[in-house]
What does this fold into?
Amino acid sequence: MMTLLTLLLAIPAALIASAVRYVPAGQVYSVYRRGKLVRLLQTGTHLVLPLLDRVAHKINLAGQTLRFEGPQADARDMRGTVYWQVLEPERADAVFEQVDQLIRRGAQEALRGESQADRRDLGARVKQALNSALRERGMMVTRVELDAT
It folds into this structure.
């Protein structure tokens, strides 16, 4: 009898606890219901529908980094770091899971076919090429640092 009473009190308490979501400063959470975006949760405490709503992406607005390796050219391997951030979470949410692949592929394509003489401002050209692909998706590359090895 006591176990049943404890169980009957524990289940609603667990549902209430799962309905409260706290979003830290500098982040946005995307909430999905039945596979579709319902809303974006900004900084603060929010209520969601337990068992129906699911937080799909925790998007950091402060900025992120990604290491990449470029194509082999003239027996030299080009590596670098891309610094990027989300400007429009509504647009970025749709491709957020593939952003690493988009950046790596874009950087490799921008580096392909570049000659040794053009290395001086190559980082700026890679940044420009990446931004042309990412801006329409609500993201922006802030800096590209290249390491020639």
Notes: Strands lie at 20-23, 27-33, 36-41, 44-47, 53-60, 64-73, 76-86, 139-148.
